[in-house]
Amino acid sequence: MADLRIGVYLAGAVLEDGSAGLAYVSHGERARGQCCPLPSRGLPEPGSFCERAAFELLALRGEDDPLLWSASMAVLNALCNHVLVENPRPQAFDAAGAPADPFELLHPEADDVVSLVGAMTPYLVRLEGRVRELYLFERDSSMVRDEHRRWLRREEEAAELLGVSTLVIITGSALANGSLDGLLPMCGRAREVAVVGPTASVVPEPLFERGVSVLGGVEVTAPAVMMRVISEGGSGRALDSRCVRKRTFRRPRL
After folding, report:
1. Strand, helix or coil for residue 219
2. Angle (nearest 5°) at CA 150 between 114 and 147
3. What is the predicted pLDDT for the residue at 162?
């Protein structure tokens, strides 16, 4: 490891060869009501993460601290970025030759029933009034704008409503918080299942094998700029062409 940062909204990791990745930061219930909590016994002290091997930090996914999940996901994305640079996979591009917008690969239609897992405002805006039904699942309702709350559904309804959805769009944060494995088996009727966002910057084949048809993440092109954005409290919207570019994969059609 060359560098690891856990910011307000994003975590970032840079390997010694310059490969970099990032992930959404899930705070969960961490440290609520505690002053200056200490790391759990046996875990790296803050300031010592970069003394560990990248693969050792991947094991943090098994810990209870959601910040460690996010850090390990950023490390995984950095490793995946290394793999994808060394062994490129066919990407999806638009007519102008730019990396495709994952949304444009889904082709939503007027009679579609669409479920969004995660309060992805740009997707909600583009889907509003364009499809027959729209369901939104978000554990933190404070993330949802007032005008979008009418689409919120309870987590207990996920199996039923995902099961009747023809399009499902899942935030890449579901990789960081460990919920994706439980969501994908619910999407059996969907003609398209997309996992999108900077956290979804992984090697595509394992997700394609589990039913995902579109994977939309990013490639980090300027790690130093990315880490500065993270250190200064930037969110995904602060990431731009200075430090990342879209990287979109579509599952080969049979």
Report:
1. strand
2. 105
3. 98
Give the per-residue pLDDT at 26.
Answer: 77
Please give the distance of CA 247 from its chain centroid, rounded to a whole number.
13
Q: How far apart are alpha carbons 74 and 90 in whole angstroms? A: 23
37, pLDDT greater than 70: no
pLDDT in tens, 163-216: 999 999 999 999 988 899 999 999 999 999 999 999 999 999 999 999 999 999
Tens digit of pLDDT for each residue in 157-168?
999 999 999 999
Whole-angstrom distance, CA of residue 240 vs CA of residue 246: 10
Pairing relation of β-strands 3-6 and 20-24? unpaired
Q: Are strands 133-137 and 113-117 parallel, antiparallel or unpaired?
A: parallel
Q: What is the pLDDT of residue 238?
A: 86
Euclidean distance between CA atoms 22 and 67, whole angstroms = 13
CA-CA distances (angstroms) from residue 124 to 89, 156, 241? 29, 21, 23
Q: Identify whether the C-beta of residue 88 lies closer than 8 Å to the C-beta of residue 30.
A: no
Q: Could you tell me the pTM of the whole model?
A: 0.91
- Which candidate, 252, 205, 254, 250, places its Cα nearest to that of 100? 250
